[in-house]
Amino acid sequence: MFMSSMATHVFLISLYLLFYSHATAQCFKEAPKFYNSPNCPNINLHPTLTCSPHAVHVAMTLDVTYLRGSMAAILSVPQHSSCPENIIFHFVTAASKINSTTVLNRTLSTSFPYLKFQFYPFDDHSVAGFISTSIRSALDCPLNYARNYLANLLPPCVEKIVYLDSDLVLVDDIAKLAATPLSGDVVLAAPEYCNANFSSYFTPTFWSNPSLSLTFAGRRACYFNTGVMVIDLARWRDGDYTKKIEEWMELQKRMRIYELGSLPPFLLVFAGNIGPVDHRWNQHGLGGDNFHGLCRDLHPGPASLLHWSGKGKPWARLDANRPCPLDALWAPYDLLETRFALEA
């Protein structure tokens, strides 16, 4: 029996879509298991694993677009940890993409069967109303703003976390970063870069308005990168810092006081009052500038964390056979199955 031309057409489209979905699907290898050193405390002895005082908590956002980068970042954390079994990951995903979350969960469980992790759905539609367009459309993704809501999403017993972006790898023990002291009323810690042109992150409208520019009066405000932060969630909750950030985002919708995505609200609230972290924990900017993605070198000094912030991502440049020299440092953490491996 021959199918009608319409049925044939539909059948061929279905075959194409099936082939395309398989061709574009990302398959990842299983990561090795990493074991605690003999002197590591056993967090499994605590009645509630997540609430163990010996756990190191890491928060990340997860989506399909940056999954390849996220997988490499995740692998790098236990690989360089002295107590990898004491690390608990907290993954925030877009609540509007339930199917994607299912895929992400399955991928993580398959590639990291020994990893301790939890998923948290983030209401990306509700935050979309706060977002203003920026100089690069990728910065406007609602999930980029999920870091503002970690204190609301994670269990109350999680009082301190390390937040990490998806485009980085660690080459040192994350426990050292997690142990960063947050003295006094300091809410977060991050490497500061006081040589950067801080004023460029805000518009002339902001600086010409005395009631706004006085925000930084009495504060030695410096730029810091929000892709690597140590956050005291208990103090964040007590100070209702999510609301403070949202208030600046609401003002931005009315009079455009900054240009660059989710970073400026953090600067407005925290710059000049953050805990110090050595620059080795965020060798950032390796993705190049936000316009051209040009190659960059490491900053002077040692490196504990390599961060491909900026337009260019190492996996995209490697696939295009146009890598930057430092992309070779990311490649060993890439868990993506190559096409040759899949066909073997």
UniProtKB/TrEMBL annotation:
Family recorded in the similarity comment: Belongs to the glycosyltransferase 8 family.
InterPro entries listed in its UniProt record: Glyco_trans_8 (IPR002495), Glycosyltrans_8_dom-fam (IPR050748), Nucleotide-diphossugar_trans (IPR029044)
Keyword Lipid metabolism recorded: no
MF (Gene Ontology): glycosyltransferase activity
Enzyme Commission designation: 2.4.1.-
Pfam families with a match to the protein in the record: Glyco_transf_8 (PF01501)
First and last residue of the signal peptide: 1-25
Protein name: Hexosyltransferase
Highest taxon in the source lineage: Eukaryota
Pathway: Glycan metabolism; pectin biosynthesis
Native species: Lupinus angustifolius
Main location (coarse class): membrane
Record-linked PANTHER family: GLYCOSYLTRANSFERASE 8 DOMAIN-CONTAINING PROTEIN, HEXOSYLTRANSFERASE
GO cellular component, one term: Golgi apparatus
